[in-house]
UniProtKB/TrEMBL annotation:
Residues 39-153, 156-255, 257-357, 362-461, 467-564, 569-667 form the SbsA Ig-like domain. Residues 1-25 form the signal peptide. The keyword Signal applies. PROSITE patterns: PROKAR_LIPOPROTEIN. InterPro entries: Cu-Rt/internalin_Ig-like, Ice-bd_prot, SbsA_Ig. This is Ig-like domain-containing protein. It comes from Cyclobacterium jeungdonense. Keywords: Signal.
Amino acid sequence: MKRKNYKTRLWLTALAAVSIGALFGGCKDEFEEVLGICPEVESTNPDKDAVGIQLNNEISVTFNEAMNPASISPGVFSLKVVNASASGRMAIASEAPEEITGELTFEEETNKMSFKPDVDLLPNTTYTGRVEPVVADKMGNVLQAAYEWNFTTGVSPAVTSTSPANQANGVPLDQTITATFSTEMDASTITAASYKLMAGTTVVTGEVTYSDNTASFDPENDLLAATTYTGTITMEAKTKDGIPMAIAYNWTFDTGTAPRVLAIDPLDLATGVSINKIIKVTFSEPMEPATITAASFTVSNGSTPVSGTVTYSESTAVFTPAESLLVNTTYSVSINKLAKNSTEVSMAQDFESKFTTGNSSIPEVTTTDPADNATSVALNKAVMATFSEAMDHATITESTFTLTQGNTAVAGTVSYSGATASFKPTSALSANLTYTGTITTGAMNAAGAGLAEDYVWTFTTVAMGVPAVLSTDPMNNATNVALNKVVKATFSEGMAPATITGNTFTLTQGNTTVAGTVSYSGTTASFTPTNPLSYNLTYTGTITTGAENVAGTGLAEEYVWTFTMVPPTTPEVLSTDPMNNAENVPQNKVVRATFSKAMDPASISGMTFTLQQGTENVSGSVSYSGTTASFTPASLLSPNLSYTATISTGAKSEEGVALESDYVWNFNIENPVSPYFVDLNTAERFGIFAATGVSNNAGFSEIRNLDVGISPGVRTSVTGFPPAIVENGAIFASDDVSPSGVAAMLSKAKLDLTAAYLFAEGATTPAPATVEGDQGGKTLAPGIYKSTSTLLIQNGDLTLDAQGNPNAVWIFQIASGFTTVGGAGGNIILSGGAQAKNIFWQIGSSATIGDNTKFHGNVLARTSITMNSGATIVGRLLVLNGAVVMTDTNTIERP
């Protein structure tokens, strides 16, 4: 009991000392353990306002003097979350609790109180540590006031790019797979456990390495052809500060198909092959020519390689031996995996084939022209035979190459070129007779070997009759013939072209010969007058008996026909689209004019069909079909302006008759937009435009049918692409050197965005309606809505009702910040024909699009825009001075 009383008195004494100290200005600690001197926090770990702290960091507080361990109990210290990033929340299954649980300990030797959280801290999150004013030193002096300090954990790393890229196709089979991180990683965490490659459910074995922020996976064996692979970086991968990935990163790619050998000549295991054989290999698909070489295509005799040249064309590789092959010898043909297709995919396996040459080099006749038993052979035919190899031209003569009809020798001359011998008869062959060609064994190759036996073949000449004119164009007695008509005559059979000339095919007008040129093709002769024919006159065409068939037989009698030129009518413009003085014509209108008759297409051009706005010509293309000419403007016509279309007298009919006078009509273009519509001008092409940065923190975000731009920021300030993708668009940065003009284009877009922002900010017609606070649950008609501070959409969705007008416009003038809260409310709902492209959110500072918000409209913010997890927008995110941040799996679509 005395011990208890003593403690009570000591406590009362200490309390009294504290009270006295308070009365006289508080503790003045001289770091001596005497009554009246109070403890203080000397240091903390982490330091006050420290950033980039590891997630498994132990929190500690060191006091300036020895403390009473009994006063260090769980209630004297707390650790709480100030804010948590969306990526931090994604690291756990539910929202982080307000206060962090853990174990509190005290070390008397160092005066240090330590707190070990039960679980790792969240990334990119600010925490507050607090020491309550109840801890006491060994004399009973307590901390005079609660001590608080903040610190922030590090940011989770992200995969900024991969090779191959996500969804890449035709990837080579020897590809090394790489993933590049947004920050320096702990190399010891980049292992086969954190970096995996799968083919379906099969794990691919390989070596994992790390260097310069890039992890590399080198497969142990080549990848499989035509296979989909999935790469994965797990949350076991950590930064050098121990910060893990927020979520696992996955990407896929497909390997290309492996080429294969479809055919080989000579065939595998062929025998009796000629010793001057050229070896050919045909592949299943086009190959990369640079890979078809003497290294990938080889021929060998046992272990001895055959010298030769390799060429490649149209999926076929050819090996031409430098010298004749040996007789009665087996050769091996090899195509190895150095041979690759056009997408750099190797053959799945080496190809091997064998063939054996014949006992000797015996030449053969491989083809003849005409072929054996051919019929209907032309009477002026030169007879040819092609050999299996080069022959001694001295042995190819009228003695070894003969042509007979029955027992009668045909006179002619023999020549030889390449591997082909030709027999040219002195006179034309006779019709409807059978001829025999013979190559004797006296025809020898360069080695002196002759054919094994005489080569004999037969053919039959054409059965010739008397040629006749079957038809003419124009027909006999035709009228209304075009002045530029080409006169034609078609024969009953093939004619000798040399007999179809200006002497045998004439055109006259009365006794006057018409100048022109004659040509022949197929079975048709054509007469093209030098000048157009004349109106209202009759012309006579004549084919004389000098026109002969290939057998030398002429027409039985001259063929004569007549036709008449009748003055053509003058063409007129019957109708136009748009009609003259039409109103509210669409901006994308194709202007058309329909004529009273067929026109000469060559006369319908940009010179004869023009469109003007005032005195300025409109750029466009002109086409003609049927009886209608069309003018397609190169760009949209301007709203609320009048245009003039003209068809000039240069437009002519098929007969060459021009319009009597220029045809002119006018029309007015619609004014489709509200007078207070915000014109984005060249900034309209961008789904994201920022000044300092564009980031995708996590997930497969998509920007669809719009571009991404940053200026004056540079390309390295655009991160998280991939996994984010730009579909039907591109990313442009101010430091891009290709294509040329990117920097100027972005500067112009920045100026246009600034002008649009200022216009939206200052719009006063119609008079703005004042709004403030939460707009959730409301329905707003078209107009201007002004907030003098912040604006919020939280308790319900905001509906914008166009009331049946698809051109209705909304401008929201927000002086400060703008926030939507996703979930049950916070969405933008369109009704009554409202369109997202006509909605403009002008924001004086920054905007936050909440989790899972479905948003519509064009956001024009001065400072920054953040899209929280799962948020989507039909519209644009455009920032003047700062950055655009996509937090996790966001979508931006063209309005």
